[in-house]
């Protein structure tokens, strides 16, 4: 005993984790706290929202509802055709234009098209393809029409007009994802090697590139399908009304004061989730079957065809430009009767009488949501557990109605429904995944040696991020801010549920006006919905250019 007291090395203490390991674990949990604050209340909210649907009587009432079969059919047609059309357009343009100058031109125009919110695009497409729309007015002199034709181009019972809008809008998103993937050096090298072996462009895409790219497009395609199944704002504008799509019908049930109909809406949300899982499982099974059958190509080379001199992307972008142009014309029109191609007179009266309160509400709400989510995303990407990134993407790849109902149920229990804080929290769930998705690529491509050098010179991990890493990632950070801002502007269901009808944004105002007959006011609100994201992307571009004026690497 005396010898042990004299020799400290002889004493034994229980093993403990090194201080550095414990600090890293604590830092990981601290990085996860903001994400847990955003996602955590949704889990009990799902139970509270969906628990009423567990009774058998609720499901009997759901299946016996006369609107149910046709609403489900319309949803399957519009979401399925919209997803297939969007992927077909994106795949055709990528196969025909990449690589080449036309692909680069299209890639530069994509942010402008992506900044147009879904509801505003639906309103503009309504003014474009309706029986009294701009296209019918252009054909009227040739066809001898005095009155609008008796055609059902929008709000048809099968949801074909809604499917067209979804396909066009989501093709831009898929092209944006493809542009990010095709920008990788490995993909370009594979194409060069395959072309050097004698395969033409179509064969290279079919045998080499698409087998690699389609698995990486699984999450974006799932997000497109989930949005098509649960979209409400576009369905209210372009979809049928008697009965509506399943998502609109569920929304009406969930907002009904009758508890029985609310339970029926919860059961319908589960059906939407089940339909999504069945379709994705079927698509995955089909893909694996195709891979097994086409695992070994025949090796037959075909002569290369002459590249097309036509810009295949031009018609797709012309639709976007026409949508914005017709909205601008309607907002300035004084009188505009069919079949006149142009308004009889232009006036600023609509803008002078416009309700600007939703614009201000949308501006502060989107700004606050983006500024709160950006540090949470940066801390998560830097120190958070990256193996749980898929959890962050769940709001993007599953139908939104169950999640919105869960948010509302959680806010009711606090209670915080109809409050500013509750409304802001409801937007964070959708803004955060998009910011993480925008930043994760540049974060993975960042050279880690720069951080090691900064820490070797005496900077702490946080100091190295503040002085080295985040300033060098300023351009993608500004792009993520613009994307998050535009996502918040476009939120419709979270604003309605969490806001309790007390907060009007440009999106809720545009959808509400679509049920009326005042096209001028509707066009003005839809344009305001477009202006906000454009301001966000424009400001991000200006700040990026200003920050890199003396630093070539930041341009």
Quickly describe the structure.
The chain has helices at 2-6, 19-39, 42-50, 56-64, 68-97, 101-114, 118-129, 134-143, 160-182, 185-196, 201-216, 218-230, 233-238, 246-254, 259-293, 314-332, 349-352, 357-383, 389-392, 394-397, 400-413, 420-445, 448-456, 461-472, 474-489, 493-499, 506-513, 519-547, and strands at residues 333-335, 345-346.
Note down, in words, how this protein is organized:
It is a single chain. The protein has 555 residues and is mostly helical. Helix content is 73%, strand content 1%. It has a two-stranded antiparallel sheet. Helix 3 crosses helix 21 and helix 25 runs antiparallel to helix 28. It is globular, with a radius of gyration of 27 Å. The termini are far apart. The N terminus is likely disordered.
């Amino acid at each position: 005993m005396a010898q042990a007291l004299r020799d400290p090395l002889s004493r034994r203490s229980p093993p403990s984790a090194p201080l550095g390991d414990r600090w890293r674990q604590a830092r990981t949990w601290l990085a996860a706290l903001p994400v847990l604050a955003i996602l955590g209340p949704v889990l009990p909210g799902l139970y509270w929202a969906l628990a009423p649907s567990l009774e058998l009587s609720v499901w009997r009432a759901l299946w016996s509802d006369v609107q149910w079969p046709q609403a489900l059919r319309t949803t399957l047609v519009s979401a399925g055709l919209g997803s297939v059309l969007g992927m077909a357009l994106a795949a055709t343009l990528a196969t025909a234009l990449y690589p080449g100058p036309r692909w680069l031109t299209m890639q530069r125009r994509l942010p402008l098209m992506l900044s147009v919110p879904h509801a505003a695009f639906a309103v503009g497409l309504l003014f474009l393809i309706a029986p009294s729309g701009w296209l019918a007015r252009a054909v009227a002199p040739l066809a001898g029409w005095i009155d609008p034709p008796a055609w059902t181009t929008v709000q048809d019972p099968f949801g074909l007009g809604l499917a067209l809008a979804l396909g066009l809008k989501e093709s831009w998103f898929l092209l944006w994802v493809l542009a990010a993937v095709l920008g990788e050096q490995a993909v370009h090298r594979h194409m060069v090697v395959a072309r050097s072996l004698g395969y033409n462009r179509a064969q290279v895409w079919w045998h080499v590139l698409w087998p690699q790219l389609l698995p990486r497009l699984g999450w974006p395609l799932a997000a497109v399908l989930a949005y098509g199944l649960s979209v409400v704002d576009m369905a209210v504008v372009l979809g049928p009304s008697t009965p509506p799509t399943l998502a609109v019908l569920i929304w009406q049930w969930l907002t009904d004061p009758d508890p029985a109909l609310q339970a029926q809406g919860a059961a319908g949300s589960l059906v939407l989730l089940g339909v999504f899982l069945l379709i994705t499982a079927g698509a995955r099974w089909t893909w694996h079957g195709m891979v097994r059958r086409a695992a070994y190509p025949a090796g037959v080379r075909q002569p290369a065809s002459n590249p097309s001199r036509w810009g295949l992307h031009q018609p797709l972008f012309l639709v976007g430009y026409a949508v914005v142009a017709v909205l601008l014309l309607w907002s300035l029109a004084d009188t505009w009767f069919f079949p006149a191609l142009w308004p009889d007179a232009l006036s600023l009266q609509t803008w002078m009488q416009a309700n600007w309160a939703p614009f201000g509400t949308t501006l502060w709400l989107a700004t606050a949501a983006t500024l709160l989510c950006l540090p949470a995303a940066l801390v998560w990407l830097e120190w958070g557990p990256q193996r749980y990134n898929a959890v962050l993407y769940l709001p993007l790849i599953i139908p939104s109605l169950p999640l919105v109902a869960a948010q509302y149920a959680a806010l009711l229990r606090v209670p915080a429904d109809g409050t500013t804080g509750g409304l802001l929290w409801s937007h964070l769930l959708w803004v955060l995944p998009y910011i993480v998705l925008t930043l994760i690529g540049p974060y993975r491509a960042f050279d880690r040696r720069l951080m090691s050098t900064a820490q070797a010179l005496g900077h702490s991990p946080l100091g190295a991020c503040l002085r080295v890493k985040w300033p060098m990632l300023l351009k993608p950070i500004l792009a993520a801010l613009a994307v998050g801002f535009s996502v918040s502007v476009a939120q419709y269901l979270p604003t309605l549920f969490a806001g309790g009808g007390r907060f009007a944004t440009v999106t809720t105002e545009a959808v509400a006006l679509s049920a009326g007959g005042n096209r001028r006011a509707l066009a003005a609100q839809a344009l305001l919905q477009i202006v906000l994201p454009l301001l966000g992307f424009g400001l991000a571009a200006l700040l990026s250019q200003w920050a890199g004026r003396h630093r070539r690497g930041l341009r």
